[in-house]
Structure formats: C-alpha cells, structure tokens
Amino acid sequence: MADEEHHFEHKADSGASKTFPQQAGTIRKNAFIVIKSRPCKVVEVSTSKTGKHGHAKCHFVGIDIFTGKKLEDIVPSSHNCDVPEVTRTDYTLLDITDEGFVSLLSDKGDTMDHIRLPNDTALANQLKEGYSAGKELMVTVMSAMGEEQIAAVKDVGPK
Questions:
Q1: Backbone dihedral region of 125: left (phi > 0), alpha (psi from -120 to 50 degrees) or beta?
Q2: Where does the record place the region Disordered (predicted)?
Q3: Mean pLDDT confidence for 12-25
Q4: Alpha-carbon span 43 to 120, nearest angstrom
Q5: Is there a domain that residue 11 lies in?
Q6: Same domain, 97 and 134
Q7: Chain segment 103-146, per-residue pLDDT in tens
Q8: Exposure class string for 40-57: b at 16+ Cβ within 10 A, else e
Q9: Do 117 and 96 share a structural domain?
Q10: What HEC string does 3-22 produce?
Q11: Residues 78 and 24 in one domain
C-alpha cells in the first residue's frame, strides 16, 4: 500500500482557493475584494467608529471586474475579507470566430480558444475592426476566481 503512487488533479470549481484572507481595515480604494462571491475592485471605502456594541465597521463599495455591477458589503474592520488573486496576461490575437470566440497565442506558443469577445461593446468593436484591418493586436486577459475575460486591447502594428 505504501508503494502506490497517487496522482490528484487540482481543479477548483468554486474559485474559493483563488483567494487569500486580508484584514478588512487594511483594504483600500483600488484594491480587490470578494463581495457576494464575486471579484470586485474597491471604488469606495468608509469606516465607522467603534460603537457601543463592538467593532468599527468598514463599508465597501466595489465594481464586479467581469460584469461591471456595483456591489456593497459591511465588514467589521478587525475581521478578514477574501481578496481574489487577479492576474493579467498578454496574448496575441490570432482569430475571431463567427460564434464570438477569440483565438489567442501566448508567449510560450500555447493557444487559447475558449474566451468570448468582451461584453464591453467598445472593446469588442475595437477588436473586430483591428482584426479585419489586418493589424497585429495584443489582448490583455484578466483572470480571477476561475473566470477569464478580455480587459484591454493594444495595437502593435500591421502584421
């Protein structure tokens, strides 16, 4: 039994392992925080004073980094909040399919075909127009808690 090898695949469905705890009182504006199980960028923080019955409270207003929805949360300043691991990765645009998916090439030579055009119509139009004009485009993909979305487009020049 001791000489058997076990191989486990690490697959986090909920995205909960993609976060780390941070004390609420130390989170500032423009930081990231998880509100209602969604990764958000903090746009407003206000702290109330310690009251008759306990802790000072932090009131967070955040914008969901994928949907753009406004979310709010109130947390005691001494308690921990979940903070998402947010990464930004640059890719070269290879193709845009008729179904609205983009084909991207990483620096390592790997391709990604599962990302859709962004919900932001201005960004999606910039991608489509640049691609149809034959320009070489760099696409920044933001990922957090198991979700990925195109966050920015940069024109590198003609192909």
A1: alpha
A2: 1-20
A3: 74
A4: 19
A5: no
A6: yes
A7: 999 999 999 999 999 888 899 999 999 899 888 999 999 999 99
A8: bebeebeeeeeeeeeeeb
A9: yes
A10: CCCCCCCCCCCCCHHHEEEE
A11: yes
CA-CA distances (angstroms) from residue 51 to 24, 28, 36, 44, 87? 17, 22, 25, 21, 38
Name the domain boundary from 84, 106, 132. 84
Q: Tens digit of pLDDT for each residue in 50-107?
A: 877 777 899 999 999 999 999 999 999 999 999 999 999 999 999 999 898 999 999 9
Q: Across the beta sheet with 147-158, what order do the strands follow? A: 111-116, 101-105, 87-96, 135-144, 147-158
| DSSP strand pairing (135-144 vs 87-96) | antiparallel
Same domain for 25 and 73?
A: yes
CATH, residue 57: 2.30.30.30
Residue 82 to residue 125: CA distance in whole angstroms: 34
| Predicted confidence band of residue 7 (pLDDT cuts 50, 70, 90) | very low
Round to whole Å and give the CA distance between 14 and 5.
27
Would you state the pLDDT for residue 120? 83
Asked if 96 and 118 touch (Cβ cutoff 8 Å), the reply is no
